[in-house]
Design a protein that fits this description.
This protein has about 475 residues and is of the alpha/beta class. It is about 35% helix and about 20% strand. Helix 5 crosses helix 7, helix 10 crosses helix 13 and helix 11 packs parallel to helix 12. Bound molecules: adenosine-5'-diphosphate and alpha-D-glucopyranose. Adenosine-5'-diphosphate (ADP) binds next to helix 1, strand 13, strand 14 and helix 13.
Length: about 475
Amino acid sequence: MRILQVCAEIFPLLKTGGLADVAGALPQALRTLGADARVLLPGFDAILAGLQSPVELASLQPPGEMARTPARLLLGRLPALGLDAYVIDAPGYYCRPGGPYTDAGNQPYPDNALRFALLGWVAAELGQGLDPAWEADVIHAHDWHAGLVPAYLRAAAPTRARLPGCVFTVHNLAYQGMFERACFDTLGLPAHFFSIHGVEFHGALNFMKAGLYYADRLTTVSPNYAREIQGPEQGCGLDGLLRARAHELSGILNGVDGAVWDPATDALLPACYGADDMAGKARCRSALRRELGLAARADGPLFCVVSRLTEQKGLHLVLQALPALIVGGAQFALLGSGDAGLEAAFRDAAAATPGSIAVRLGYDEAFAHRLIAGSEVIMVPSHYEPCGLTQLYGLKYGTLPLVRRVGGLADTVADTRLETIDTDATGFVFDEFSPTTLEQTILRVNALYRRPPEWKQVRSRGMAQDFGWARAAGEYLALYHSLTPV
Ligand code: ADP
Ligand code: GLC
């Protein structure tokens, strides 16, 4: 089976969040199961730099306004991933200072509709034989950036005998790719697609809605989030459509890429370790404390956060709970970047209590590994969380997750209570989104920490969980098979 994955970022070449981790791991996991997976990516500088032996497959002639920006399709190899990749080389769209979606001042590029419509259009062309040597059976599009893939495929349907099946995966429903109505007229889609039964959403063009409306199957990244987004609270205005398509929507939990995240082999750590020999973890913790200027000893555990600093992640709860956390004798370290107000508040907290709180602002892959390995607890108190990966990394690294019972966090962490400690506890889970509840949960963490045998029992159970990609890849493969004629 040939599967084309379409996404805007991919680890290790370009990453702004968990989407890149998934995009990097899933095609490889599919290949391990015998499927023939390739990816299609926009030609951002970092992607082009990682593409080996590119050959030009076609000079592209997209419709509408996109025709004005020269673009060609390359096929090359991503040696970092052992994967063949199609890359859209359109420097006018993709080679800019700043990030993939926003400029250096963090503002969305004004032509984002065209930049990502091109991704959708090229995917649909690949679905119609643009590369005669490799025709996909299924195209799998990720998040709003690839939301127009199924729309362009549908637009081609009347003239094609056979098109590949199309799966659309929601990684975060809150980011929808909304543009003014006038943008729609520049994309070369049939006029009647701008309808409530199509890409229109409250008078605007909505890429996420296009994906949800036109794809053959919908998935999201945890079973619990698949349920949550069908309700008004988490549906971001699209819950009606999701309810209408409920029988075609499923939740497939993300995995952890064991080649990147495994404490037994992680070359980014000062010392490796495993469940049967945790000495390396103690070394990681000492090294981390030295690196961050934290006191060499503490009466409580070392808590950490590795996160984008956005409203979604609930980090103002952590800010409010920090005084109680350090009064209890624990320490806290954060790696993150994003919202300027949150960055300043965490920086101030660290400046006020340097031996107990450490904050590193920015994006640092290697430090994320050292921080997760060296800490004892990882906090993910999200307001909402489609899946969440850092709590999974925490489980694997013997760093107990403290999470809110929401989205994929609820699917992956089992709370520690008297009645669960001997059976299934792997971390700490709280319900109410309030600093008081977080503080109470921190007290529960500290109480367990004072009981080393029980702490180790919960930690070992967490480390033994299997969150490898094989299960998720198997579920995706079954879904792809359901879309292809036998
Ligand atoms: P989201 O995709 O919503 O940001 P996830 O938990 O799914 O949340 O994935 C976040 C990914 O980004 C993880 O791999 C995490 O380690 C990484 N990450 C987040 N912030 C940083 C940072 N400041 N530096 C390095 N890695 C980070
Ligand atoms: C999104 C979500 C996150 C999820 C990631 C990968 O960024 O916010 O919860 O883990 O996508 O699917």
